[in-house]
Amino acid sequence: MNPAPSADTFPRLLVEHARVRPNATAIREKDLGIWQSWTWRQMLQEVSEIAAGLMQAGFKRGQHLAIIGENRPRLYFTMTAVQCLGGIPVPMYQDAAAAEMVFVFDNAEIRFAVVEDQEQVDKVLEVREKVPHLQQIFYDDARGLRHYQQAGLQPYEALRVSGQQWLKQNPATVSEEIAKGRATDIGAMFYTSGTTGDAKGVVLGYDNLIAAGRAGAELEALTANEDVLAYLPMAWIGQNIFSYTQWLVCGFTVNCPESAATVTADTREIGPTYYFAPPRVLEAMLTQVMIRMEDASGIKRRMFHYFMGVARHVGGRLLDKQPVGLGDRLLYSLGNWFVYAPLRNSLGMSRVRVAYTAGEAIGPDLFTFYRSLGINLKQLYGSTETSVFVCVQENGGVKADTVGPPVKGVEIKLSDAGEILIRSPGLFREYYKAPQATREAKDAEGWFHTGDAGYFDQGGHLKIIDRAKDVGKLADGTLFAPKYIENKLKFFPTIKEAVAFGDQRAMVTAFINIDMEAVGNWAERHNLPYAGYTDLAAKPEVLALVREAIGKVNADLAADPKLANAQIHRFIVLHKELDADDDELTRTRKVRRGFIQQKFDQLVAAMYCGLNEQYIETAVKFEDGRTGQINATLKIIDAEVFSVLQKAA
User: Which pTM does this prediction carry?
Assistant: First the structure.
């Protein structure tokens, strides 16, 4: 049973679920190894208590409240409680440094914050020195906070007790506040990841978010019987659409893992039916698979590689219900018994009915790997400004190189320069306190200028080339799409991150980050000692390993006449991992390409000057806030490059 149409705000959706399915499980959390559950009725009661407590603390309609921490039921309850009062929750990245939070607290004039634990309390207290309007801080986990006596700092339970006492005297207060809400009210504000500059507050209404959530739910026939894992940052719009908006739209169960370290094990226990993962998560899982295979016996390795060859040939066609010969079906069934089913179980995907990947482009090889296992992984295209759902691949029409057709109600057109423009019910209101940025992003006719370059194929599926600003040409006119090249590199478990260069230059070069876990495992098996990342990344054996992977990518590129000249000619394995704390990545782990090129300009210049090595000193930030220097002399390696004629031969 779906919520009534009149349930047009998140609080009203909660009230409706508590009425329709009061004893069904709304949310679970694994705590000290045991799953704890809340029903919809229990959730409504706790949300009402928190809302009443916030009223008592002085929270007013229209104000912003910061929420910082891992996925925890109490933080989700707080989001809904804020919305009950007509307030606007602002989820923030839990791994952000205090200095990064200052802008958001100041920009949104945040006076109230609800955070997870001591780590977040410490950061918010540090922020308060620079934004004195932050008055009230409430925390969920009290461990380590016994002797904290700062003004305005209280436990979540104190907020809840205050609300309980108020509701005893004024039982209808929260219900009356919920009734004041309108579908056109602001539901939440999410700050962009700041790939190209300062973060911007994206203002989204209930109508925007719920329309997008319902469009996706209808497309996949989602029901209240789904199980979803909430493990990605609450500040990311993708996590909020899948484990908050669609949760309240559909009434299914959301599951919060115990910690980031237990996500894989907790996923296996829950067995989600509806799953979402950005490419970086899928890359990490593939790396784990390949590490285990390298540690397996020779017979198991040969069996794995043989049946994965069968899967790549057959698996996607079976998912799309295309004709497959009897012999191939039998081989795939055998592979499913010995390889695919155990792998799906190991990944926690045995019950997955539909899985999405989004956030950035996924490499075709990585995408094909998961679909070949029988996992119904599909690409989704959208952004914070569009409430995520813009294009989705349809069942039976999945292609590795497109993101599918537009979702119902979404309009897309291409500018003369090939930029993707969007109008949809999910489109954001504005950038908070940034009218000029809003006008630049949304034109007078309501078209949102995405900054992405793409085109429609003959079947009406949208194909994303890259960020429009990143797409360029080599000096000879060859198309240069760095993300496409980088994704092919990251399919290899030894490569964690890659940054390609080449616009207006004679050749393509690249920076490489090795995957410490995968390469470290390989080094141990080959009796190769190392002292840390910088030491391991400089080993000649590791450089040869990376060169081999780049050679395979170049061989693939050489097979495409349009991209043959975009092969990687030279590369450097960086002496440090690219890090969000050093501003090289966003908090959603997107590469800040322009910043990296500027920061390491002498390395880029060295690759194009024909040098064989280059000394560099690099400033880094440590987790405790200290800064330091890493210096190294980096080898510049010539990659194996193929000609089109040689490949054809």
Answer: 0.84
